[in-house]
Design goal:
By secondary structure, the chain is mainly α. Helices cover 91% and strands 0% of the residues.
Length: 95
């Protein structure tokens, strides 16, 4: 049995045109409402808190990674090695 696809398509096309016409008829009202809601959201949005929420964990991660790199591979490691070697020299001289 063949379904009346062309009739169904005409009905859907008519519905689409009706929705489009309704939206276009109220375009200015819809745009005004969207603009007002957007302005309210922007005015009430706590940008500083949102920045802190994302920034602080990243900063902590970067600080930890930088310190770890400094003491594991960089100048901090050299300073620790020097303190250890200097300490060994003192112990050897005293002993």
């Amino acid at each position: 049995m063949t379904l009346p696809i062309p009739i169904l398509k005409l009905e859907l096309e008519h519905m689409r045109q009706a929705i489009r016409s309704a939206v276009l008829a109220h375009h200015e009202d819809i745009q005004k409402a969207l603009d007002q809601e957007t302005a309210k959201l922007i005015e009430s949005f706590d940008f500083a808190a949102e920045v802190r929420k994302h920034l602080i964990p990243v900063m902590e991660e970067v600080v930890k990674a930088t310190l770890e790199h400094h003491f594991r591979y960089g100048e901090g490691r050299k300073a620790i090695e020097k303190m250890i070697l200097d300490g060994l020299k003192v112990e050897v001289k005293d002993g």
